[in-house]
Amino acid sequence: MKRQAQLSRLFDGLGLVLGIGAVLALLYYWDPTRVTIKRLAPEADARFEAIPADVTALPVSEWLTVRDADDVRQRRARLAARIFKMPDLPRDLMPQQVMRDVEKNPGPHHTCLSPTGSAVVRLLSRTDTIIMRALACEAAYYRDWRNLAGIDELTGYLSKNWRPYSIAYFRPKTANGHLILYQQGLAATYHDQHRMIEAWVEDGYTVAAMNMPGYGDNTCYDWRRYCSGPLMDARFATDGGAAFLPPVIAVNYALAQQPFKRIAMIGVSSGAWITLVSAAIDPRIDTSFPVAGVLPLALLRGKEESAWAIVEGLVGIAGVLDLAVMGADRPGRRQVQIFNRFDRCCFYGPRPTLYAGLLAETARNLGGDHQVLFDETHARHKISGWAVKRILEAITGDGKVQP
């Protein structure tokens, strides 16, 4: 009995310790706590509140060279020629293959390198479970979403043994007439945003979700499914084609199914750069939202500099500020850039305030609307609930989004 009492007290003590640890861990990772920690850090003012001294004297106004509608038209044509090797968008280009209702019938596919694959695969290849989540493996878990009519997989084969693309096209049962293009960034797939996409579908949005090249199904891992058919036109077998062609094809396919009141594009991190360029070259995108990314190249610091590779060859035609204005170049077009002020990764702080007013004024002169917002609700590299609320306000409304 004495031994049992000792064991009981021991387990009670362990339970108390574990309980306290769980509460402390929850508080530590709670977004308001993380923001407070960032605010109180020794370098907080320099990192999150002040514009770096070495950039305050930079000639920011000279970086914006698009001033009128003629400038926009000329730059747009040059960008299309650079990316697609043609004088305009390939507006008639459709997916090479459309697999309907993959949530019900995914079809033949390779072993799942995903959290829903075998435990051995997850253990041996943790990185692959993050970046290689396949629609054929995940779609069944979306089957019971409220208001989901079905998921179409749109695919094409760009370059031999190297570059396929895959787009997940979520069709709502009751649609609200709006299309959202969602572009995931690096180190994840759009499956990691399933709760956000589910909420959009439930609200009636049609959603076309895309990964970065080399992520998810944008590889030849599942060779028979994505890389065994005929190749697309050789003009698209480039880094630019792999990055910027899928949003164009998504819009082409969507408009062939039905008309839309408004088309929006949302991209996070590296996906923000795809969104910036896509909105600049495709005026069918009415509202665009680069989130947690996109700064003029001269303002990039540290790991942010990897963005050079995405827009290499394009910024000589239209700089980052030019691209932003081109996404808001006429009445009815709007771009809202959202930055996480306390982002633990990158694109943090107030640097965009250097040019936010210039972008707003130039877009207004063209008839469009441009805003820069700062999300101070968390310290992560993500799209927050605060940001999603502002995004939906901008998609459905006509006035300024409230910060």
Key features of this structure:
nine-stranded mixed β-sheet, 15% strand, 403 residues, alpha/beta, Rossmann fold, 2 domains
Provide an overview of this structure.
- With about 400 residues, the chain is of the alpha/beta class.
- The protein folds into 2 domains: about 1-40; about 55-110 and about 145-395, Rossmann fold (3-Layer(aba) Sandwich).
- Helix content is about 40%, strand content about 15%.
- The chain has 15 helices and 9 strands.
- It has helices at about 1-30, 30-40, 45-50, 70-85, 120-125, 125-130, 135-140, 195-200, 225, 240-255, 270-280, 310, 320-325, 355-365, 385-395; strands at about 95-100, 150-160, 165-170, 180-185, 205-210, 260-270, 285-290, 335-340, 370-375.
- It has a 9-stranded mixed beta sheet, with helices on both faces.
- α11 packs across α13 and α13 (about 320-325) packs parallel to α14.
- The longest helix has 28 residues, at about 1-30.
- The N and C termini lie far apart (about 65 Å).
